[in-house]
Write a structure and sequence with these properties.
Oligomer: homodimer
CATH superfamily of the domain at 1-97 in chain A: Jelly Rolls
CATH architecture of the domain at 1-97 in chain A: Sandwich
Number of strands of chain A: 8
Order of helices and strands of chain A: HEEEEEEHEEHHHH
Distance between the termini of chain A: 48 Å
Strand content of chain A: 15-25%
CATH class of the domain at 1-97 in chain A: Mainly Beta
Shape of chain A: globular
Radius of gyration of chain A: 18 Å
DNA sequence: CCTATGCATTCACCTAGGTTAACAAATACA
DNA sequence: TGTATTTGTTAACCTAGGTGAATGCATAGG
């Protein structure tokens, strides 16, 4: 595969276009050697498991998305995030060895700000939106995913139970007739 | 005032160390000319007002913090965030004219990633923590703020009502005796 | 000094969403 | 193909936290 430009050429390990089977775990909680992945085909997700053993999906990464633990990276701490494949996928591992030159930084800065922006929005959403509004939001962000991942995972992403999501969808279908 | 290093020297408008009175609104929803502020003394906050007219505090910015709307900046959109002063404060406005050179980007990248990391953590917290756990978290992040801002603002930051916070604090005091 | 406004607390409710469980449908797998 | 596991749905209950209102205190401004 050929890369679009020099930036990507440098950031990704050439030739490391891995194919991973559905269910493969690429990173687990506690890992210290943090990895980031760019998805070229398929679907990854990252999630945490809380103190009560419950899974919370932090993000989905379909084609053209990047997953990784910025928090662990910034603070040089072991990660809390698991990353696994929800579908057979084709991914590029981001090269951890590449030195961040000034030139790379400028391009990376834009991406980092964009990522922060997305997160800011998600925080505002989580603070003020009802379950139903969150569902709408999910559909906006991932328009092609709502019939591609199981409902219980959507629920986990929204921070509600699968039953609540089912209830909401039922009410919606009924009200709209 | 003297700046610590060249980066700050460039980023902040020299001589623009403004003093603002408690209550001053520095930015409002809908503003298109987005501003960021570094707080050298006092306390700012940023918040949104949702569809139902309810205030949600997005962040506090005591001494040495920076506030601004990354989301609006990244997407070149009018902001949803208000920024105002909770105390008489001394602030530096970040120069919007400064051109981001490669060298600046490298230093900015670290800050941006750190900001994203903080937000990532907040998202995980909002998805999995109870009101009480959030309160603990608030105290960790802003140890000097919990008797400096009114409870109702802490509640707004946590995403709960002042009554709920009062109830929780009451139970805690009682249980611990 | 008096009055007004804002804040914290408490109480009696209400409600969105969680929990548990049963069952049906879909999917995986042997 | 048949069996087992995973999913989605529904329903009966439970609970954390919201709402609204009353009360007491503190602070601000005249």
């Amino acid at each position: 595969m050929l890369y679009k430009n020099n930036l990507e050429n440098m950031l990704f390990e050439k030739g490391l276009s891995k194919t991973v089977k559905k269910g493969t775990i690429l990173q687990r909680e506690g890992d210290t050697q943090l990895k980031s992945f760019a998805v070229t085909k398929g679907l990854l997700r990252s999630y945490i498991i809380d103190a009560k053993g419950k899974e919370h999906i932090f993000m989905f990464a379909p084609e053209d998305w990047i997953v990784g633990d910025l928090y662990g990276k910034a603070l040089k701490q072991p990660t809390r995030l698991f990353i696994d494949a929800l579908e057979d996928s084709e991914i590029l591992e981001i090269n951890p060895e590449v030195e961040i030159t000034n030139e790379l930084a400028l391009k990376g800065l834009e991406k980092a700000i964009r990522r922060a922006a997305m997160l800011q929005n998600r925080v505002l959403m989580l603070m003020s939106a009802t379950a139903w509004e969150r569902y709408q939001y999910f559909i906006e962000i991932y328009p092609d995913l709502y019939n591609r991942v199981p409902q219980k995972m959507i629920a986990s992403y929204l921070g509600i139970t699968p039953q609540a999501l089912s209830r909401i969808r039922g009410e919606w279908a009924r009200s709209k007739k």
